[in-house]
Amino acid sequence: ASGGSGGLNGTAVEDLRTLLSAALTNIDTCLDGLENTTGGFLERMQVALGNTTEFTSNSLAIVTKILSILSQVNSPAANRRLLAVPTSSDFPSWLLAADRKLLEDAGAPAKADIVVALDGSGDVRKINDAIERVPKNNAKRFIIYVKKGVYAEHVEVDKKTTNLMIVGDGMDVTIVTGSLSVVGGTSTFRSATF
């Protein structure tokens, strides 16, 4: 977490805090997915993950304290704006230049390979139908454009569906909703819409 001058880089520390928080969430989600197992498997997994959970939690507390100290000394690096327009340096080094350009482009959407529209004006009416048409282990980016509407379906993307990008008209107009819940017999792990 050091910058070019040898000091702490607030952005890198904030990224580390995000990753540690995600790790704790993933541990909880993993354990939630094991709730209905038998033979003491859940309990054995809880014991096995005990140290991992404790170390991750302690690391998160340390990183949070570092960020608190950085903000007290008015370090501009600690005051990152998450909703700011990304610059090329905000992307990971493994991201290809063409993909950076695609993500940075706020203008016209990229040309879609398949269009999903509830009203029938697209190639298909359901997102899952579009995903079924995506070539498996695809080497090039495959773009599905989902027009505005409320899509009541549980979207499944399998591991062999690679290089897939799904684009909508906006979070308030292209809505994907499902009805999976623990009450209905679905584990928390399997209840996500996507």
UniProtKB/TrEMBL annotation:
Pathway: Glycan metabolism; pectin degradation; 2-dehydro-3-deoxy-D-gluconate from pectin: step 1/5. Keywords: Aspartyl esterase, Hydrolase. SUPFAM superfamilies: Pectin lyase-like, Plant invertase/pectin methylesterase inhibitor. Residues 113-194 form the Pectinesterase catalytic domain. It holds the Pfam family Pectinesterase. It comes from the Eukaryota. The keyword Coiled coil does not apply. Residues 11-62 form the Pectinesterase inhibitor domain. One of its GO terms (biological process) is pectin catabolic process. GO terms for molecular function: enzyme inhibitor activity; pectinesterase activity. Gene3D superfamilies: Invertase/pectin methylesterase inhibitor family protein, Single-stranded right-handed beta-helix, Pectin lyase-like. The keyword ATP-binding does not apply. In the C-terminal section; belongs to the pectinesterase family. In the N-terminal section; belongs to the PMEI family. This is Uncharacterized protein. It comes from Nymphaea colorata (pocket water lily).
